Amino acid sequence: MSKRSCSCKVFTALDHKLQKLDKLKHSENLLTGKNCFTRKKRKLSFIEDMKILMSIGSSSLKKQLFDYFDYDINAVSLPGFIRSRVKIKEEAFRKLMDMMNKAYPCNKTYKGYRLMAVDGSELPVSVDITDTDTHCRDSSGNGHDSLHINAVYDVLNHRYIDNIVQPIKKKHEINAMIDMAGRYEGDKAIFLADRFYSGFNCIENIRHTGHRFLIRIKDVTSYSYKFKCIPSVMKDGEFDEDIRIIFTNKKTKEILAHPEIYKVWADPKKRFDFLDEDNHFYEADYRVVRFHIGGEEAYETIITNLDRESFPAGEIRKLYNLRWGIEVSYRHLKYSADLSALHSKRRDFIRQEIWARMIMFNISMIIIDYIQDRKIKSSERKWEYAVNITMAIFFVRNYMIKRKDGRPPDLENLIASQILPIRPGRHYARNVKSQPYVSFGYRFN
Known about the structure:
With 445 residues, the chain is an alpha+beta fold. It has helices at 6-24, 46-55, 61-68, 78-85, 90-103, 173-183, 200-208, 253-256, 313-322, 324-336, 347-374, 389-400, 411-416; strands at residues 114-125, 135-137, 143-154, 159-167, 189-193, 212-217, 239-248, 262-264, 281-292, 299-304, 384-387, 419-422. It has two domains: 6-94 and 343-438, no CATH class; 108-326, Transposase Inhibitor Protein From Tn5, Chain A, domain 1.
């Protein structure tokens, strides 16, 4: 492969960032102890640990260590690798993700805004009787352990930006979105989210970051619709209305007599960061858009702070549809990048693997987007074609592993040869069902 090829440059950049991270690992507090990785003669370095965790797939860890070290009989043992990986904090992976995203900036925007989708996904994990926060029961009464991943995903550049992992019993998607929006330091963005992130405290925290939001809320037909007391947003059919709400922690007769103006926030258990003993009133303006999505009674309702002139109702609908990109990315993260096949019961190790798979996914998408833009040429065929992401991630992961003859494959042409037709408008009913944990038993050594 040419040294000037895109994939070669990406992996060269990865090596440079890992070397930089290696120098910063003590000063940036990326390790679990001060003496970690200080011994000179050792089989595994900090960089090798990070690369192994990014390149592992679904087969047994012992097999993958042999594959990574080219079946060297003197390679590190499985217990040795486990003792080595325990020294790395998950912050090291987050730092690496940020460094790679800065090395390959996300330049695709929508009217000057990056589109940052936020969503959650449940990740089944192995049972740990000492961890009661991850244990829950499904609708059939069967018990299982799960973690909940909250992620920020750039839907135009196909890149994960951040994530927060919570035990399933302590899942709080709104707080996670507030924290991730507060940590985001990139260019101006529109945060897209489904109705589980539609709390007023979340919306106002995003507004105070200086960014925009576009979040689905429950429809006017729902019992818990947010604006039942406001006539202008209780219409049938499509509408696009501006409203003003005054939040308050007081309960005077005048306030209670005007629910269309005041939103009383007096429950101390419910978080609202903009009211306290010194600040009793907080005003906020919203735009509420309702549009038809198919079927006689099928509507979606959106709350946003995007201006109507630049983003009419049709644009709002289009932007919300783009949010689906994060749902597709979760499917590739779990099954193409093998996040569903974890290699540990330890919760800190699982968090390592979540970050490592996201970095692998991002590296793959940088290369895929380059190939899609430059090597997948349109033709007179019936359909347009796109790269097969599952196969591309498989090729990229294996490229990271040392080849026996020392010569890597022609990665870009290999990926470009694996394409799938794009069939616009094609859709199927979602067959939603819980996914069980992929046990260690099938991954025989």
